[in-house]
Automatic annotation (TrEMBL):
UniProt EC number: 3.4.13.18
GO molecular function annotations of the record: metallodipeptidase activity
GO cellular component, one term: cytosol
UniProt domain Peptidase M20 dimerisation: residue ranges: 60-143
Protein name: Cytosol non-specific dipeptidase
One BP term from GO: proteolysis
Top EC category: hydrolase
Organism this protein belongs to: bioreactor metagenome
Length: 337
């Protein structure tokens, strides 16, 4: 990415780019998403525990997780969002104290686990257990065939908790978790089955001063990425929180009038006798950075030979595929000329 980020467009006269960086023969990439990281914080006021409570750990386990770009379309459960739904409903029937809430490992990964530590009066423990049973069935029904190993459980802890969130802080944190945008926001109408914009609440962390919500926002349309960010800004303002954005990278928007795509399609059919697969990726590519350098005024396409187990010690490439794609590239260049 460093080379693309530091490219000076004034050094180039051409406005057509062939990117040989794809990993599947016969697939032509014509778009990629841009993205940005959001970090939202809700300040927490703590108060001392003055009564006798039972300490319970609400845990979510067994979700598949996955890459928040490539696998967001699989509708897998997000442990942070599931925890938010459970705790909001529990709060309507049990007057619990919230000590901490944590979930997820990486901002750009669909979170698999989450933990909420709560304090309840001993006589209300059974009501919490009843809610666990109720929501276990709800989640199992919603995620059947997607996340069959989901486990929602409660554990009684011997830990002595001495401070908890104030009631006002608790409800603001729960509302943020419950209302936070997450998942697919729009689908492309130009490319079948392509996620156009999405957001993933990847990490929730309790600190001494606040609860922090880390999300990855992606879109192949700049204005839709901004729209998701604007939703987050408004939500943060309503709940007296703060928000920061970082690691912004540009998208490569699909161009329905692309001349280079038409050439690649025609030549592929001439050589191989069938149509190539036109695809896009809901993740970042150098093409997004290069497109941004030229304010979108560059015609691009990405293709390549079959490469397997990319970015692992087992990465390898098909030599015969390289030969075919080389011949294909030469034919494309002749057609352009």
């Amino acid at each position: 990415m460093g080379g693309a980020m530091n490219l000076d467009p004034s050094n180039l006269n051409g406005r057509m780019l062939i990117n040989i960086d794809s990993e599947e023969e016969g697939t032509l990439l014509v778009s990629c998403s841009g993205g940005i990281r959001s970090k939202m914080s809700v300040p927490v006021q703590y108060e001392d525990v003055s009564e006798q409570y039972s300490t319970l750990a609400i845990r979510i386990r067994g979700l598949k997780g996955g890459h928040s770009g490539m696998e967001i379309n699989k509708e897998r459960g997000n442990s942070n969002k599931l925890m938010g739904r459970f705790l909001m409903d529990l709060n309507s029937v049990v007057d619990f104290k919230l000590a901490s809430i944590n979930g997820g490992a990486k901002m750009n990964a669909i979170p698999r686990e989450a933990d909420g530590i709560i304090l309840v009066r001993e006589e209300e423990v059974s009501r919490v257990q009843d809610k666990i049973s109720e929501w276990s069935k709800i989640f199992a029904n919603e995620l059947q065939g997607i996340d069959p190993d989901l486990c929602l459980k409660v554990e009684k802890l011997d830990e002595n908790i001495t401070r908890v969130f104030s009631d006002d802080s608790k409800i603001k944190v729960l509302r943020m978790l419950f209302l936070m945008p997450n998942g697919i926001k729009s689908m492309s109408m130009a490319i079948k089955d392509l996620v156009q914009s999405s957001t993933n609440l990847g990490v929730v962390t309790t600190t001494n001063e606040s609860v922090v919500f880390d999300s990855a926002v992606r879109s192949s349309v700049k204005s839709l990425k901004k729209s998701i960010c604007d939703d987050m800004i408004v939500l943060t303002e309503i709940l007296d929180g703060s928000i920061e954005f970082e690691s912004d990278y540009p998208e490569w928007q699909y161009n329905p009038q692309s001349e280079i795509r038409n050439v690649f399609e025609k030549v592929y059919e001439d050589i191989f006798g069938n149509k190539p697969h036109i695809s896009a990726i809901h993740a970042g590519l150098e093409c997004g950075l290069i497109s941004d350098k030229f304010n979108g005024n560059i015609d691009q396409i990405s293709f390549g030979p079959n490469i397997y187990d990319v970015h692992t010690p087992n990465e390898h490439i098909s030599i015969s595929s390289v030969e075919r794609m080389y011949s294909y590239l030469v034919a494309v260049l002749k057609e352009i000329k």
